[in-house]
Please model this.
Amino acid sequence: QKEVEQDPGPLSVPEGAIVSLNCTYSNSAFQYFMWYRQYSRKGPELLMYTYSSGNKEDGRFTAQVDKSSKYISLFIRDSQPSDSATYLCAMSAGGWGGADGLTFGKGTHLIIQP
Amino acid sequence: GAVVSQHPSWVICKSGTSVKIECRSLDFQATTMFWYRQFPKQSLMLMATSNEGSKATYEQGVEKDKFLINHASLTLSTLTVTSAHPEDSSFYICSARDRQFLPHEQYFGPGTRLTVT
Model:
């Protein structure tokens, strides 16, 4: 079993729809949960991060973490064609000053149809 | 936000030759730099972690003699792929952070696409 599981898609939805992206993980030591957006042949760009369990909202994006279920989600409201990209979840067990690399999911390829 | 650059952005080399990729933090001191590799339609896989002035720590299965990492200054780390083979063709991405940063504050470079012919 891989440490982080993420459905690679592609996930295709019409413009304006609510998008739900998810990851599951097995390592209970993970405390920091991130979502990155990656366009083709580019480096990942941090969208949101959450520490431990709970919700976090930033504009059209909402991140949720349920540590009891080892399940994290990213919701995108009012999706736009410009949101089309690959979305990667990433996790870390490291605390302040830690030097841990991130463990990434495979990424979900999202397509927003105009 | 913090900016990380990589050079070159893409490189083609012949099998058996070596190629060096540079990763620079432009506006902060990177006490730690990470090197990742990404194959098509695959996730980013951590290859190694380097702390300034120390030897790099390699992930299981990554050959340290093949992927040489140098982190000689607080703004520069290099990855040298020695005796490259076609199976080394991949997208190599670095990230950098300062020890003062939280784990999510890991800034990624734009990546280097390596093609070995």
Q: What stands out?
A: Chain A has a mean pLDDT of 90. Chain A is about 0% helix and 55% strand. The CA atoms of residues 51 and 60 of chain A lie 19 Å apart. The first strand of chain A starts at residue 4 and ends at 5.
